[in-house]
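Re: that chain you flagged

S.,

Sorry for the slow reply, it's been a week of failed gels. I finally had a moment to sit down with the sequence you sent. For the record, here it is as I used it:
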Amino acid sequence: MNYKKAWSFIKKDFIIESSYKLNFIQSLFTSIFPIVSFFFIGKMVAGNHLAELEKYGGRYFPFVLIGIAFVRFFQLAVDTFSTNIKRAQMAGCLEAILSAQTDPKAIVVMSSLYSFLSAGLQLVLMFLIAVIFLGYDFSTANVPATMLTLTASLIIFISLGIFSAAGTVIFKQGEPIGWIFGVASALLGGAMFPVAVMPGWLQQLSLFFPLTYALDALRLALLKGNSIIMLSQQLFILGGMAVFAFPLSLKTFEWAIEKGKKDGTLMQY
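Prediction finished late last night. Pasting the structure tokens below so you have them in one place:
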């Protein structure tokens, strides 16, 4: 990747977003309000013994904090690529951008860097608020296992985002990848409740969603201190998905661009 070009994209997007100060502030509060709400919900259910939570330490708030924080972060990885494609389509400049000397895949990735940095800062902010004001305890976290899980998971969701961008080029409106992740995956992946409380057939269906393994491993690493070896099953599945999905997503995006150029539909939205 050309680092000067990457920095130019980051700088451009920061200037644009910082010019909309109210929207910037609203996005910060949007990341804070859910964790405060679920903190009080956690207090409400604190007296109830939930056997399904024992695997993760028994407390609901730390469980749901990890769910909503990382789902928000992963959702961005899926949405940001297609959002940038839609924006370029509506501005009528997608064909010109993708016809530049820079590799189209690199353009899509670099145009999303600022969004990832912004989402990463919001993720850190959510946990800081939880630690400083809401009593969240990081003392048992296994950092290497957390970072390895996060890396493998992020590669998968970036891949889904590139698939989503390809779908946007082909379908224009109503591409299915973002919808499947946003609606089905958050439900079936156990973002706000343990997968174990769902009916058996839904538990079986959840095994097809990477979010299920990502949140399970992140919760065990952060709340129980599980090591990389202890999380080997989840990491093996996530790693296999990442190795398969990433190159396939790049090939799919290349195919979508070539098809759009051939059909003359890159300017449509």
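What I noticed first: The chain has a mean pLDDT of 81.

Talk soon,
D.
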